[in-house]
Amino acid sequence: MQENTSPFIILTDAHGLESSTKDALVVLALTREEIESGLFASALERLHVLAGSRESALRYRESLVFVVDGYDDDPRELQEIPEVRGFFASLTIHWPHWLWFLTRRTGSITLLMSLLCDSEICRDSRGVIGVEFLDADDLSRKLMDLFARGNAMFDCFDITDDQAKASAQSALAELQEQP
């Protein structure tokens, strides 16, 4: 009999995620109501689980994506909505570990940085084709801030310099590959 290795989905809250021992794609689902109220405590609680132990930090490395629900009828991209940008700026003040946890090859890092930095959506006749960062120094400062504040987790959990460096390099590569 062949073992079933098909992916599966488990919907859970922070407590369920904390007690999980399985590798997973972690989806941070945010609602328009959460964004516009500016109350990020629930999102922060869910994110803290990822960085709550060495085991979790290593298990969920490059496994996080975020989705924002409720703006489907808004013609603007998320980066063009001040409330979304403000929410992520506030959340990031309290949780700097995005670059370790965000998935690669999904556009998540570019989306996050375009929410945190001065950026402009690039469009052509087909629609959105990419993001332009308007101030390279601002992008560099924000990346360095995330790396520097994220180092506390690495020190606390004895994550090696090689692991941290590899994660940083892959995050930077993601930004360089975006159109």
Describe this structure in words.
- The chain has 179 residues and is an alpha+beta fold.
- Helix content is 51%, strand content 14%.
- It has nine helices and four strands.
- The protein has helices at residues 14-19, 32-37, 41-50, 54-59, 82-94, 98-101, 108-116, 136-156, 161-177; strands spanning 26-31, 64-69, 119-124, 127-133.
- A two-stranded parallel ribbon has the order 1-2.
- The radius of gyration is 17 Å and the shape is globular.
- The mean pLDDT is 90.
Per DSSP E runs of 2 or more residues, the count of β-strands stands at 4
**Major beta-sheet overview:** 2 strands, parallel
Q: Which geometry do the CA atoms define?
A: globular
Strand order, sheet with most strands? 1-2
Number of helices: 9
On the 0-100 scale, what is the average pLDDT? 90
Q: What structural class should be given to the helix and strand makeup? A: alpha+beta
Strand content: 5-15%
The helix content, as a percent range, equals 40-55%
List unreliable stretches of 5+ residues.
Answer: none
The first-to-last residue Cα distance is: 46 Å
Radius of gyration: 17 Å
Secondary-structure element series:
HEHHHEHHHEEHH
